[in-house]
Amino acid sequence: MTVMPNTAVALQSEQALARTRVCSAEPRRPPRPDGQDRYTISEVAAFTGLTAHTLRWYERIGLMAHVDRSHTGQRRYTNRDLEWLDLVGKLRLTGMPVADMVRYAELVRGGEETYGERYELLEATRRDVLERMAQLQDTLAVLDLKIGFYADAGRRRHDAERDASRQ
Hints:
Largest sheet: 2 strands, antiparallel
Strand content: under 5%
Number of strands: 2
Shape: elongated
Number of helices: 6
Radius of gyration: 24 Å
Distance between the termini: 40 Å
Helix content: 55-70%
């Protein structure tokens, strides 16, 4: 069975996203106030759900900016680092390739003159997300159709059995 993409659903999704260009979720409050916001790698792992290995890898590949160190060499993350990791998590959910996330991180570190490139990268990611959302909406419609079919078939079978038992 071939199902054509539901352009009306895709258009509605795109219009809804256009109305809310800003993330509507309440920003997470940092665990500690600025100035007292020094976290160990294990604390950051607990806050973010990432492993210490992943956090070190992010730093190694340039996805994380330089993380401060204590006098003993232990990493000390800040609230700003936690905010960045939250964004990286969102970018991962979009399906953005790691190479593009690293490129975005480099652009951020490049300052205001990279706004245009950042905009293009995020717009391309947004288009990909909208396309996948439309595909998922279409897939959901097919699943709903099949679920409805089997629910109706089950009711008809139950009704037929009940009618047969009355006779």
